[in-house]
């Protein structure tokens, strides 16, 4: 009975092993087929890209001399291709950054240790190592924080000194003055003071007719002021012309 039972167990174990081997073989074969399919798909994609690139280059060479090469449809296709290319480049850049980040983390933190298989002495050593590393990092952190506070204090002191200096030496804002303003002001003053009508010699002889006398009598005071103003303006204008001519000669 024991021999039959042992034989039955051996047959069952053999059958089970054959099933396992066949399953593993099937899985490996599927993996190989998937890898081959992926490689074939990549090769097809690369071939299609090369074909599209070659076709575009041929079209560009064939119609380079013709006008209106970039039609709206071609512009649209080109924009789509450029967007796809930019998306691929962005994805590659993100993958590269992720790999670089993982590499730096592994360099700084190290690989994960198997604490389950360690004995008590090894665990103590690991704890001491981690404690020393944490202490060193805390010390570096304290030094950096102290340096930051020191620099902030220096910056505040310098800002206070700068504000004090600005308060002591305030530069007044200069007004914009014209080059000919003083000359024109002097000329206007002279023209206002200089009045020909007051300096004219008065003639008492009645050599004019009665009509002219009547006109002089009827002339109001504001008309006389207007005449004096006209004469002063003419004098001022002549002086301005002379000043401009002298400046142009200089």
TrEMBL record:
User: Would you tell me the Gene Ontology cellular component terms?
Assistant: troponin complex
Output the superkingdom of the source species.
Eukaryota
- Name the Gene Ontology molecular function terms of this record: actin binding
Q: Which residues cross the membrane?
A: none
- For bias kind Basic and acidic residues, which ranges apply? 216-230
Region (Disordered) location? 56-75, 207-230
Biased composition, Basic residues: where in the chain?
A: 62-75
Q: Does the keyword DNA damage apply?
A: no
Where is coiled-coil annotated?
none
Instruction: Please provide the Gene Ontology terms (biological process) for this protein.
Output: muscle contraction
**Record's keyword terms, sorted:** Acetylation, Actin-binding, Methylation
Cite the InterPro entries for this sequence.
Troponin (IPR001978), Troponin_I (IPR050875), Troponin_sf (IPR038077)
Family from the record? Belongs to the troponin I family.
In Swiss-Prot or TrEMBL terms, this protein is called Troponin I
Which organism is this entry from?
Argulus foliaceus
């Amino acid at each position: 009975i024991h021999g039959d039972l042992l034989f039955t167990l051996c047959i069952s174990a053999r059958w089970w092993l054959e099933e396992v081997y066949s399953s593993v073989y099937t899985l490996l074969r599927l993996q190989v087929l998937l890898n081959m399919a992926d490689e074939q798909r990549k090769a097809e994609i690369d071939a299609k890209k090369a074909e599209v690139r070659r076709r575009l280059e041929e079209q560009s060479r064939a119609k380079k001399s013709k006008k209106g090469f970039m039609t709206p449809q071609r512009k649209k296709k080109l924009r789509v291709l450029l967007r796809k290319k930019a998306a691929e480049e962005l994805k590659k850049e993100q993958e590269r950054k992720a790999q670089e980040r993982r590499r730096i983390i592994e360099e700084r933190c190290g690989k994960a240790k198997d604490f389950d298989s360690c004995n008590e002495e090894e665990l103590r050593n690991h704890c001491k190592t981690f404690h020393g590393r944490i202490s060193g990092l805390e010390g570096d952190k304290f030094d950096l924080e102290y340096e930051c506070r020191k620099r902030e204090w220096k910056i505040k002191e310098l800002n206070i000194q700068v504000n004090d200096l600005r308060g002591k030496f305030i530069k007044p804002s200069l007004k914009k003055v014209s080059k000919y303003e003083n000359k024109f002001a002097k000329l206007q003053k002279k023209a206002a003071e200089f009045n020909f009508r007051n300096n004219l010699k008065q003639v008492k002889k009645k050599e004019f007719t009665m009509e002219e006398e009547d006109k002089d009598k009827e002339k109001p005071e504001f008309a006389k002021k207007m005449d004096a103003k006209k004469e002063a303006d003419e004098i001022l204008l002549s002086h301005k012309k002379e000043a401009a001519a002298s400046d142009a000669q200089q």
